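Project standup — Tuesday

K.O.: blocked on the structure for the chain from last sprint. Re-posting the sequence here as requested.
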Amino acid sequence: MKIGITGGIGSGKSYVCKKLIDKGYPVYSCDDEAKRLMQESDEIRKQLTGLIGDEAYKGGKLNRTAIAQYLFQNKNNAERINQIVHPAVRLDMEEWYKCQRPTLCFVESAILFEAGFDSAVDATVMVFADDDVRLQRAMKRDNTDSENVQRRMAQQLPQQEVCQRADYTLHNNPTDDIDEEINKMINYLKSLTFNH
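H.V.: unblocked you, prediction finished:
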C-alpha cells in the first residue's frame, strides 16, 4: 500500500518520515529525488537548458541559483519547471515502488496535492502543527526571520484545506506524543490495507 505524507513548512513531516524509516518502513522523498533527477537525468538537463539557457548547469552541475532566479520571476516559470520535473519524479517513484516489499510504503512530498502525486498513492496523511509552532521550527531550522517563513507558508495550500483532502491527520505539536501519534497512524493505515 502506497501512502503519501504531506505537511506545510515546519510541520515536521521529515521528522515523522525519519521515525518511519527507523521503524523499517521505506520512504521516498520527492524533494530529494527531484534534486537527484535534475542533476542526473539527461532528458531533464536538456529540457531545463532549453528553458533557462546554458546557465541552468554550471561546470556540469545544476546551478541552483539560476534555477531559483528563474523560478521566482513569475508563477508561470515555476509551472514550466514543474512540467519537466514532476512527470520524471512520478516515473521514478513508480520504479521505486516495484522494488519495495513491506505492506506500507511512504512517499514524502510537500506539494503532494499540488503536484497531483495524491493520485499515485492509495491514501494520504497530513502532518499538522499549529502555525506558530511551524513558524518557530522553520526559523530555527533555516536560520531565517519570520517574514521569510511566513512568505513561504503563504505560498502553500492552507493547512485546513489539506486536512480536509487528506485521509488521515497526524498531530505534531510539542504537546503531542509523536511516537504514539505515528503508531496510531500505522494502525489506521494497516486497517485500510485489509479492505484493499
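K.O.: great, moving the ticket to review. The chain is about 55% helix and 15% strand. Residues 133 and 173 are 7 Å apart (CA to CA).
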